[in-house]
Amino acid sequence: MxxxxxxxxxxxxxxxxxxxxxxxxxxxxxxxxxxEEYFSDRYTGAAFETFGASRFDPCAITGDDxxxxxxxxxxxxxxxxxxxxxxxxxxxxxAAGQVGDLLQLIPIDQPLHTLTAEEFERWLGPGSPxxxxxxxxxxxxxxxxxxxxxxxxxxxxxxxxxxxxxxxALGMAKSELWWRPWWEAxxxxxxxxxxxxxxxxxxxxxxxxxxxxADIAVWGAEMMPRPxxxx
Length: 231
Description:
Blueprint: H1 10-21, H2 31-38, H3 63-70, E1 76-77, E2 84-85, H4 86-94, H5 96-103, H6 117-123, H7 129-139, H8 144-154, H9 164-169, H10 179-187, H11 190-202, H12 210-223
Parallel strand pairs: 1-2
């Protein structure tokens, strides 16, 4: 991954995230309502993890994965600035062997917050399979946000979804290092992980990863109509 700095401090990320998880805040739609709304028919992102589940291949980027990222507002068009160009999809297909080899080296179901420092560096640090996969997607012409969403689709427990709304909300818009501060923030605060797990449980969305639960909590607060407003 290029351009290592700037780096968001884990404590700053925790401080920015916690207000979005509170059940008391009246600034946003209540958190339980956010998840209820998200998993209604109004938001296609609810199917991001589950679309094509019976065909899911953990070691390949497939057509189902490209469809899934469109559910998170990533266009696939011949010409696009923030989406995946058709030419990039062709390049991904050409790089299928390299992508598959790298995905085989990245754990499938291990949550990000459970990684030790050694495991993080081995699987997600500089020069790791994850870092190299990110570079392959970059080289294929996949834009930054779309790269992160594709990686989150393939390893939802390890890679947080990246979204410009969440970037701005958490003060991470300029951070190239996206999954490291998330790991530091979650691995260093068990109470934060427990809080996210409780939110996930109350939402009856146990299929979600901890990092995806946080993503929905923040995105929903910023994008869903607030109490007393029309949306």
